[in-house]
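Annotated sample (chain length 124).
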Amino acid sequence: MMNNKELALTAITDVFAKRDITAFDKYFSKNYKQHNPSIPNGTEVLKQIVPTFPESFKYKSGIVAEVGDFVMIHGRYENWNGKNMIAVDIFKIENGKIAEHWDVMQEEVPAALSANVNAMFPIK
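Output written by the structure step:
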């Protein structure tokens, strides 16, 4: 059985990097709660959205932190509605499944254009 950190990382990678919508049935609770105000509860809408991502869409995870039942993943979404976005996705794990999700997302600013010349996402 995966620990919470492995579960959340596998789920987000399978969904966004591999575009595997079967991951929703494997890793997400039947009563999945979504806290992003533009997405309803449950996984049905997400199962419809993921296959519509353009070929150029990519996801890469960065820093992953676990605190109790919560896992936070700093990630980069390339070509999310035409923009590169940096996000922190927060997952609550209950009974070995993702039960809830929050996210904080902002458009990526290239390091050369930022006031501090620091990248918003680690380059690996």
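Annotation: DSSP finds three helices and five strands in the chain.
Annotation: Helices lie at 4-17, 22-27, 44-49.
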